[in-house]
Design a protein that fits this description.
The protein is of the alpha/beta class. The protein is built from 9 helices and 8 strands. It has helices spanning 2-28, 44-57, 73-79, 98-105, 149-152, 154-158, 171-174, 178-188, 207-216; strands at residues 32-38, 62-68, 85-89, 115-119, 136-142, 162-166, 194-196, 274-277. It has an 8-stranded parallel β-sheet with strand order 7-6-5-1-4-2-3-8, with helices on both faces. Helix 2 runs parallel beside helix 3 (73-79). The radius of gyration is 17 Å and the shape is globular.
Length: 278
């Protein structure tokens, strides 16, 4: 058992080193990375599509990299925004790692990119333990997932620098208790901001982009209690290398992102997406 734990710590320690170097490199070139984590079907692709469209309308140079076990579906959707998009197929791996991200950015990411949105594999377990060199870590949860989600996945929510609630247009229909959800978030991550959004109705659109731009401009993001004292830069992942197992409602080996919200507007611009395998 000790050898298994030691191996896991060694792998994650190596990842942390690569992430630190990647963060420094991207920060130096003026690019902030936003790591988006959620369960499958949370609606993060639909929300991200709207945010990318908004960024383009405002003239903000952004790009998006999306990871899945299979299919190019998300990249096809996101590429409708007209911004650079790359699909990464993990071929069974349930998360992205810093080295993987760095390799896929090399030679692809435009030099003037201010914000790179990384849509991680749909999963709240494995990705929570891997630093990607991000400037801002965002965890999303839809109103259909239950108010106790933060308690079931305390590492994912406990290390979030921003929590986004999606699909609020159906909150009343599914009986979502906002107060209870907020209270549970605060139990695992006191002080973190919770933003309500609906890609369908337009609620909260632009907040994610604004928070990302603020961090990219040198603003200090929220530092979760779980991460305090790990280093002098407010970076939050460090050595928190445990895995949550939740309540069994999420299979660690089946993490395709099943976002199924309605199609967003087509801006009428072609920007072919790139697809690569890890």
């Amino acid at each position: 058992m000790c050898r298994v734990v030691d191996l896991r710590q060694a792998v994650l320690a190596k990842n942390d080193g690569v992430a630190h170097a990647l963060r420094a490199e991207l920060t130096a070139r003026g690019t902030a990375v936003v790591n988006l984590l959620s369960s499958p079907g949370s609606g993060k692709t639909a929300l991200l599509e709207r945010e990318l469209l908004l960024a383009r309308e405002r003239g903000v140079p952004v790009a998006a990299l999306t990871a899945d076990l299979a299919t190019e579906n998300d990249a096809v959707r996101l590429s409708r925004s007209g911004v650079p998009v790359k699909q990464v197929l993990t071929d069974g791996l349930c998360h992205l790692e810093a080295g993987m991200l760095g390799r896929h950015l090399d030679g692809w990411l435009p030099g003037d990119t201010r914000i790179l949105f990384v849509e991680n594999v749909g999963n709240l377990v494995c990705p929570a333990s891997y630093d990607l060199g991000e400037s801002l870590r965002v965890v999303l949860a839809s109103v259909t997932e239950g108010e106790d989600k933060p308690l079931k996945y305390p590492t994912a929510f406990g290390l979030a620098q921003l929590v986004v609630v999606t699909k609020t247009d159906i909150a009343e229909a599914v009986g979502f208790d906002e107060a209870s959800f907020r209270a549970n978030v605060q139990r695992v991550n006191p002080g973190v901001e919770v933003v309500l959004t609906s890609a369908h109705a337009g609620e909260g659109l632009g907040v994610l982009l604004e928070r990302a731009l603020a961090v990219g401009a040198g603003g200090t993001p929220h530092t979760p209690v779980m991460a305090r004292g790990q280093n002098g830069h407010g970076h939050l992942h460090g050595h928190l290398h445990g895995h949550d197992h939740g309540d069994g409602d999420q299979d660690e080996h089946e993490h395709g992102d099943g976002d199924a919200e309605g199609d967003g507007p087509d801006p009428g611009h072609d920007h072919p997406h790139t697809m690569v395998r890890t």
